[in-house]
Design brief:
It is a single chain. With 250 residues, this protein is α/β, with parallel strands linked by helices. It has two domains: 1-55, no CATH class; 72-211, HUPs (Rossmann fold). 54% of the residues lie in helices and 10% in strands. The protein has ten helices and five strands, in the order H-H-H-H-E-H-H-E-H-E-H-E-H-E-H. It has helices at residues 2-13, 15-32, 37-53, 58-67, 100-103, 106-121, 141-153, 167-178, 192-202, 227-249, and strands at 84-87, 126-130, 158-161, 183-188, 206-211. The protein has a five-stranded parallel β-sheet. The longest helix has 23 residues, at 227-249. The radius of gyration is 20 Å and the shape is elongated. It starts with a helix and ends with a helix.
Length: 250
């Protein structure tokens, strides 16, 4: 029951959800008080903010610095002492009619692809899939990761860490398994800076293996509002707020 409630609250508190509700509320207030200059100003500002967050180049401009903080690991074979690949949970779709890899969110699927690449280059590494039950479904994210990995590779040799529901809990679970042993950490490029800070603060020694890049060009092009740009803005704002929250509660 808590899973859908968490999902609803997360959607409501997202930039698009918050601005959408705020715009509707301001329209209602304006109907009640059509001469209010303050309401008109707030309404215009809210619509403008939603327009800008849904457009390029602002979306890519605020996301790219996060994604570029850690470079893509082209040659993992140079790390001869690494024996583990840790894959952080990135979301799932709780639909029992889908195949395991189809249940993974776009971010999780990209993380899985990067994991398979690392495993192919470093076959001696043991994979640890992380992620708890965020939707009160029968399967955890780690379960789905493992099943999807097996579907795509026929390999059943992996470890599941299936209790954590956020990055901080994942770091604590990994410390129990790995302590101060260096390992590859796979996550989305935008999430990697926050994940590395949390893991290092816990006493772990992760080596960043970013994946799931949303900004793939060095040139920012102008574009009309679209859902893709809004998604990139939301991803960036989520990470910025998450880092602030980690800094405040640390």
């Amino acid at each position: 029951m808590l899973g859908p409630i968490k999902l609803f609250l997360k959607s409501f508190l997202s930039p698009a959800g918050f601005l959408g509700v705020l715009i509707l509320y301001l329209i209602y207030k304006l109907i009640k008080n059509p001469t209010s200059k303050k309401i008109k100003l707030f309404l215009f500002s809210s619509i403008l903010a939603l327009y800008l967050l849904s457009s390029e180049p602002l979306a890519s401009f605020i996301l790219k610095p996060l994604e570029n903080q850690y470079q893509y690991l082209i040659h993992p074979e140079t790390y001869t002492n690494i024996k583990h690949i840790v894959v952080l949970g990135g979301g799932q779709l709780p639909n029992e009619k889908l195949s395991s890899y189809s249940k993974l969110s776009e971010g999780s699927l990209n993380r899985l692809i990067e994991t398979i690449r690392l495993k192919k280059i470093k076959p001696e590494c043991k994979i640890i899939f992380s992620g708890g039950n965020t939707f009160d479904s029968k399967q955890t994210e780690a379960d789905i990761y493992g099943l999807a990995y097996t579907e795509l590779t026929n390999d059943v040799n992996y470890i599941k860490s299936a209790k954590a529901e956020n990055t901080k809990q994942e770091a604590k679970d990994m410390y129990v398994l790995l302590a101060d042993t260096p390992f590859f950490l796979v996550s989305s490029a935008s999430h990697m800076p926050r994940a590395i800070k949390i893991f290092e603060k816990t006493g772990l020694k992760p080596i960043a293996c970013p994946s799931d890049y949303s900004v793939r060009s060095d040139h920012f092009a102008l574009s009309p509002p679209n859902s893709g740009s809004l998604g990139r803005s939301e991803k960036a704002i989520t990470e910025i707020v998450g880092r602030l929250w980690f800094w405040i509660t640390d």
